[in-house]
Inverse folding.
């Protein structure tokens, strides 16, 4: 994948060909993050569509000297997804219901180890959003700590602390669940 910052100036200028290239280079990774946070294929597709509209509208505010284009897009995607989840919760949606049976099936289509992904998806929905975002970005998407800090607009220590706490929560949930007990 070419470095998206190689065409940052053209992106900021609104070059349609470059915008299409940015979309092609980043949509898969952003979709994975949004899907992991929402657990819904339909919601992830809608959110991703909105993210690219927002990115295009805000393209002049992108500052290549502060972050890579990928980091900037991650930040838009994560913020938009968290806002979506807050709105959905506020509207009476139950956050635990955001990860339904369809989510586990979608993950199984995309990744090997169906049982492990169902377990992970179930456990991820149990931890608070601020920890879940860090776990998804670091442990699933393999993003560097400093990039996560920029995406979330928090200190590096906060990312490490949330990641550590999120991992502890996941481990505790796994150990207490029936999922960790072998069936006889």
């Amino acid at each position: 994948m070419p470095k998206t910052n190689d065409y940052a100036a053209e992106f900021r200028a609104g070059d349609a060909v470059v915008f299409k290239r940015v979309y092609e280079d980043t949509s898969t990774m952003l979709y994975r993050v949004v899907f992991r946070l929402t657990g819904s294929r339909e919601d992830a597709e809608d959110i991703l569509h909105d993210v690219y509209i927002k990115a295009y509208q805000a393209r002049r505010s992108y500052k290549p000297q502060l972050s890579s284009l990928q980091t900037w897009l991650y930040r838009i995607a994560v913020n938009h997804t968290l806002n979506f989840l807050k709105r959905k919760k506020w509207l009476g949606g139950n956050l635990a219901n955001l990860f339904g049976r369809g989510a586990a099936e979608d993950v199984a289509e995309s990744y090997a180890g169906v049982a492990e992904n169902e377990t992970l998806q179930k456990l991820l929905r149990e931890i608070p959003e601020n920890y879940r975002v860090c776990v998804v970005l670091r442990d699933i998407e393999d993003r560097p700590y400093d990039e996560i800090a920029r995406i979330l607009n928090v200190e590096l220590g906060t990312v490490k602390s949330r990641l550590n706490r999120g991992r502890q929560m996941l481990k505790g949930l796994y150990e207490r669940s029936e999922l960790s007990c072998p069936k006889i």
